[in-house]
C-alpha cells in the first residue's frame, strides 16, 4: 500500500528517491520521507502530506549522499504526522533506518518487549519496532541482524534498511509486499513497483516471498529463506517513462479514460480468431483438453475488478453455459466453499498485488484448482504465481480510480467466455457475431467519449447531491455497481448500485427530489422492464439521469437528463456504458474540488489485508 524506493550508486540519491516516490504516490500519499547516507551519517527528512511537502523541505535542507531509501505512506498504524512518517530509526544510537510497506500484526507484543529492554519509541507505527529489533540484534553484520529479526515478525513486509555502520549497503526483504530491483551500470535501485524506475533502467529483478537482497553500487545479491544465493533472472519492463506521465491531460484518470479505445485494441490484439470465430490466448498454459473439462468457474477479485467479474458471470453463462461464482477475494480466502475438482479459479486484478486476491488465489491453488490471472501489471506477484493467465496490456494505470483496466478486464472476460463457449455449445455464427462486434469496439468507445460535454452539463446539475442511486439490469447491473463505486471513490458522495427491479424491495425509500437515480438503459431485452422501474422512481419525484441508446426519444421524454451512447450488442454494453459513468464521476468530483487522482483514504494497490 505504501511505496518504497532505494538507490545506491554514483549519483546524488535525493532527487532519484523523490522522483521515484512521485511515480509511486498512487500507492499512498499520507506522508513521505527519505534517509540518505554520507559515511557513518544518516540524513533523515520526513514530512506529513504529499511528496511535494517533502520536496519543498528538501529545498531548504537537502539530504546529501549517493545512497538512500525513501517511502510514501498509506497509514495503517498511527495518525498522519511527521513523526509517524517513514523512515524510522532504530537503536539507542539511531544507527538503523527502516522503510516498510505492509503490516506487522504482532508489533504490540514486540514493542512491549523492546520497551522492557529500554528502547524508546518516538512513533505509533508498527515499523519502528522493526528498526529497534534490527539494532538490538546487530553485531556488526546488517544482513545477519535482519535474518535474526525476520522470524520474529508476523504479518507482511517489503523492507529496505540502511545502517550507519554499513555505508553504501542497502538490505531489502519481502513477504507479502512487492519489491523489485532495478539494475543500472554502477548503480542499483530498489522499489515497490517498476514504475518508480522508469527513465533510470528497464532491467528489473522481481523478489519473491521470503527473499532477501543486498545492494551496493558494485553488486546486488538475492538470497532465499535458507540463505542460499538465488539465480538472478533479469526481466525487461516494456513501459516507457511517458506512459506514466499525464501528457496534456490535467489528471491521470481523464488520460486513462481517453486511452480506452487504445487499451481495448491492445487487449484484443492477436487474440481474435476470424477463421474459427473464437479467441486465443498465448499464456493460459492449459491445453484444450483441460479447458474442455472445466465444469465451473470461480472469479475472484476486489473492488472494480470484482465488478468486472460480475459482468464475466453473465458472459460465461451466456456464451459457455458454465456455472460461475463471483467471490470477494477477502471473503473467499477465509471461507471453505465445497468446490469440485473440475473448477477453475480466475483471479482478476489490475495491479497484481492486491493482498486479498493473492491470498484467495494461493488458497485455491493449495486446494489443487488451476488458478488463472487476468492482470495488467507484468511481473506482478499474482501474475507470476498464477498457473497461467491473460495480460490486459492496458499500460500503467496511475489514477487510483480504475477505469481502462475495468473495460479491458470485461473485454478479456468476453473473449475468454467465447473461447470456453466455442469449445462447448456456442455456434460458429454466434461466435462470428460477437467477434465482429468486438472488432468495432474501440471505435464505438471513441464515439462514446463524445458524450463528455453533455456529461459536464449533467454533472453541473447534480454535483451538490448527497446521495445517488445507480440502476441497471442484467449485464448492466454490475456496471451500476461500478458507476456507484467510481462516484464514491473520487467525489465522496454516498452512492449505491442496484438491480433496477430490486428498488421496490426497500431502497426506493431513499428516493426523494434530492436523490438522483442514474438509469443504465440502452435498448435491449429488458428495456421495457427498466422503463417501468424508471416510472416508479419518477412517481416518487426522484430526478432521473438516463444512459440511453443514441436518439432514443422514449427515454428522452421520461428522464430528466439523458446521456447517449452508441448502440452495441447487450454483451458489450457494459464497456460502452462505463464511459459516461467514469466521466460523470470525474466531472462531479472536479466540481466538488476533490483530488480525482489521489482521493482521500485510498491507494491504488491494496497490499495489506
Ligand atoms: C477501483 O477504482 C479501486 N482502485 C479499487 O477498488 C481496486 O479496484 C481494487 O483495490 C482492486 O485492485 P486490483 O484490480 O489492482 O486488484
Describe the structure.
The protein is α/β, with parallel strands linked by helices and 609 residues long. An 8-stranded antiparallel β-sheet has the order 3-2-4-1-10-9-11-14, covered by helices on one side. It has a 6-stranded antiparallel β-sheet with strand order 5-6-7-8-12-13. Helix 7 packs antiparallel against helix 14 (428-448), helix 14 packs parallel to helix 19 (573-591) and helix 15 (452-462) crosses helix 19. Bound molecules: 2-deoxy-2-amino glucitol-6-phosphate. 2-deoxy-2-amino glucitol-6-phosphate (AGP) binds at residues 302-305, 349-351, 354, 357, 400-402, 489, 605-606.
Small-molecule binders: 2-deoxy-2-amino glucitol-6-phosphate
For the secondary structure, the number of strands is 26
Any idea what the radius of gyration is? 25 Å
> How many H/I helical runs?
19
How much strand content do the residues show?
15-25%
- Mean pLDDT across the residues is 95
How would you sum up the global shape?
globular
Q: Strands across the major sheet, in which order?
A: 3-2-4-1-10-9-11-14
Structural class estimated from helices and strands: alpha/beta
* Spans of at least 5 consecutive residues with low confidence: none
Assign a percent range to the helix content: 25-40%
Gap between N and C termini: 10 Å
The main pleated sheet reads as: 8 strands, antiparallel
Amino acid at each position: 500500500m505504501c511505496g518504497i524506493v532505494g538507490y545506491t550508486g554514483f549519483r546524488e540519491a535525493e532527487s532519484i528517491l523523490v522522483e521515484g516516490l512521485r511515480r509511486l504516490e498512487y500507492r499512498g500519499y499520507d506522508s513521505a520521507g527519505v534517509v540518505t547516507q554520507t559515511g557513518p551519517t544518516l540524513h533523515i527528512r520526513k514530512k506529513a502530506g504529499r511528496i511535494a511537502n517533502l520536496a519543498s523541505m528538501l529545498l531548504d535542507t537537502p539530504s546529501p549522499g549517493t545512497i538512500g531509501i525513501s517511502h510514501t505512506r498509506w497509514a495503517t498504524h498511527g495518525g498522519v504526522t511527521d513523526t509517524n512518517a517513514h523512515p524510522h530509526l532504530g537503536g539507542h544510537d539511531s544507527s538503523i533506518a527502516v522503510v516498510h510497506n505492509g503490516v506487522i500484526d504482532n508489533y504490540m507484543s514486540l514493542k512491549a518487549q523492546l520497551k522492557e529492554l529500554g528502547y524508546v519509541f518516538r512513533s505509533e507505527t508498527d515499523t519502528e519496532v522493526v528498526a529497534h529489533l534490527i539494532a538490538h540484534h546487530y553485531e556488526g553484520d546488517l544482513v545477519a541482524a535482519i535474518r535474526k529479526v525476520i522470524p520474529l515478525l508476523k504479518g507482511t513486509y517489503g523492507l529496505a534498511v540502511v545502517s550507519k555502520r554499513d555505508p553504501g549497503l542497502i538490505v531489502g526483504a519481502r513477504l507479502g509486499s512487492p519489491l523489485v530491483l532495478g539494475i543500472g551500470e554502477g548503480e542499483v535501485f530498489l522499489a515497490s513497483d517498476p514504475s518508480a524506475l522508469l527513465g533510470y533502467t528497464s532491467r528489473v529483478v522481481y523478489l519473491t516471498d521470503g527473499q532477501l537482497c543486498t545492494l551496493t553500487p558494485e553488486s546486488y545479491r538475492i538470497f532465499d529463506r535458507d540463505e542460499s544465493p538465488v539465480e538472478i533472472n533479469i526481466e525487461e519492463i516494456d513501459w516507457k517513462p511517458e506512459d506514466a506521465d499525464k501528457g496534456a491531460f490535467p489528471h491521470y484518470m481523464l488520460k486513462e479514460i481517453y486511452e480506452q479505445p487504445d487499451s481495448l485494441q491492445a487487449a484484443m490484439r492477436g487474440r481474435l480468431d476470424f477463421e474459427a470465430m473464437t479467441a486465443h490466448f498465448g499464456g493460459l498454459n492449459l491445453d484444450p483438453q483441460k479447458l474442455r473439462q472445466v465444469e465451473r468457474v470461480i472469479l475472484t477479485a476486489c473492488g472494480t475488478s470484482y465488478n468486472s467479474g460480475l459482468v464475466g458471470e453473465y458472459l460465461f453463462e451466456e456464451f459457455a453455459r458454465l456455472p460461475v461464482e463471483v467471490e470477494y477475494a477477502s471473503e473467499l480466502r477465509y471461507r471453505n466453499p465445497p468446490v469440485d475438482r473440475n473448477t477453475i479459479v480466475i483471479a482478476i486484478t489490475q495491479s497484481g498485488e492486491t493482498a486479498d486476491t493473492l491470498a484467495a488465489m494461493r488458497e485455491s491453488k493449495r486446494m489443487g484448482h488451476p488458478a488463472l490471472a487476468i492482470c495488467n501489471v507484468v511481473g506482478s506477484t499474482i501474475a507470476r504465481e498464477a498457473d497461467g493467465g491473460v495480460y490486459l496490456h492496458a499500460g500503467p494505470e496511475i489514477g487510483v480510480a480504475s477505469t481502462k483496466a475495468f473495460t479491458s478486464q470485461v473485454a478479456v472476460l468476453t473473449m475468454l467466455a467465447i473461447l470456453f463457449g466455442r469449445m462447448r455449445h456456442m455456434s460458429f455464427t454466434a461466435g462470428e457475431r460477437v467477434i465482429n462486434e468486438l472488432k468495432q469496439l474501440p471505435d464505438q468507445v471513441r464515439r462514446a467519449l463524445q458524450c463528455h460535454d453533455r456529461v459536464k452539463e449533467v454533472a453541473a446539475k447534480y454535483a451538490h447531491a448527497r446521495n445517488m442511486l445507480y440502476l441497471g439490469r442484467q449485464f448492466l447491473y454490475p456496471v451500476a455497481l461500478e458507476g456507484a463505486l467510481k462516484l464514491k471513490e473520487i467525489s465522496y458522495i454516498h452512492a449505491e448500485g442496484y438491480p433496477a427491479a430490486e428498488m421496490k424491495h426497500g431502497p426506493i425509500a431513499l428516493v426523494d427530489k434530492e436523490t438522483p437515480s442514474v438509469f443504465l438503459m440502452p435498448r435491449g431485452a429488458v428495456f421495457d422492464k427498466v422503463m417501468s422501474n424508471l416510472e416508479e422512481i419518477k412517481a416518487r419525484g426522484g430526478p432521473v439521469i438516463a444512459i440511453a441508446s443514441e436518439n432514443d426519444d422514449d427515454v428522452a421524454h421520461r428522464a430528466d437528463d439523458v446521456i447517449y451512447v452508441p448502440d452495441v450488442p447487450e454483451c458489450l454494453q457494459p464497456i460502452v456504458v462505463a464511459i459516461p459513468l467514469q466521466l460523470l464521476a470525474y466531472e462531479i468530483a472536479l466540481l466538488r474540488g476533490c483530488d480525482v487522482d489521489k482521493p482521500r483514504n485510498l491507494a491504488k494497490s491494496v497490499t495489506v489485508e
